[in-house]
Amino acid sequence: MASTIQSILPADYTGGTFIGRAASPDGPVVIAIRDGILFDLTQVVATVAGAVARRQFDGGREIGPIPDGLPEGWELLSPIDLQCIKASGVTFALSAIERVIEERARGDAAGASAIRAQLEEKVGSGIRSVVPGSAEAMELKNALIEEGMWSQYLEVAIGPDAEIFSKSPVLSSVGHGALIGVRSDSDWNNPEPEVVLVCDADGEVVGATLGNDVNLRDFEGRSALLLSKAKDNTASCAIGPFIRLFDDAFTIDDVRKANVDLLIEGPEGYTLEGTNVMAEISRDPLELVRQCLSEHHYPDGFVLFCGTLFAPTQDRDKPGAGFTHKMGDVVTIRSERLGALSNTVTTSRDAPAWTMGIAEFARNLGERGLIDRI
């Protein structure tokens, strides 16, 4: 997918600091953007996780102004490396209702439309008005139990505990321009446009980026115990284009009020648009980080998908069947302060194999004399 770096950065990129990664002929490099200039930080710090831990975002070798792009033979990678990849689910009222629909439809897209209307009538207004874990939320829970409408998804939507899960292994995420995968045996699936928070080992949020938390609605709808199969597949986690670091001009408050726009362009001319409005999230992003950290420890830091408001229901092929991906769909996720992340859909079976795991990454850095700069 051809695009210039400038075209995928936010309009105010010259006023921000960004960090990311690229594949060079020698191996992965850490890159930064400061004052509109691209720098190679690899000789200073060889991993993004290390840069975050040590707050080492300056220095490095100047590559050139952003309009000149990356050096020849370089390609953007996901902007993270050794961080654990975590995700929070059912963090918006609409997505909670859609998860219940998947559960009640047993993963069958054809039955979703009628269930959606019933649930929206019974649950919609109540779930939008309560604070998760509050006394009012517990009253709503009891009322829904009495009506036989309670669900494990509603438990994490309005109960005290957020849904936090491991999305993808370390080093497995793909970046802007890469193919993104859905399982070849899934026939009801969708992208999930999200803000991704970037945290150090202590859970301090240092910046944010965009992500596509690809979801298989048929798998998870059959059983919540299939979450891992629905979420963790080859090329099923896209992150990028760069991490925008927090500073005086970009803070967690900008994340809280961000709009994340989604555009799907199908090979047959189909288009679908939607927006993930972060202001409508049920739990504050920092509360999600707190629950992710919990009683855990992430020595190389972690990133956290914040969940999505957007669940595509627009029919694609036949009435009542809703949306599902086709091979060749181009998915673009864009936010004013974070830039744009675009990927083309294929199957996880046909996506390029993930080959640079932790051992290969360490070997590559060792061969380049960089192992002590992790």
From TrEMBL:
Molecular-function annotations in GO: hydrolase activity; metal ion binding
GO biological process: small molecule metabolic process
Family annotation (InterPro entries): FAH, Fumarylacetoacetase-like_C, Fumarylacetoacetase_C_sf
Protein's UniProt keywords contain Hydrolase: yes
Domain called Fumarylacetoacetase-like C-terminal: residue spans: 200-345
Keywords assigned: Hydrolase, Metal-binding
Family: Belongs to the FAH family.
Protein name per UniProt: Fumarylacetoacetate hydrolase
Phylogenetic lineage: Bacteria, Pseudomonadati, Pseudomonadota, Alphaproteobacteria, Sphingomonadales
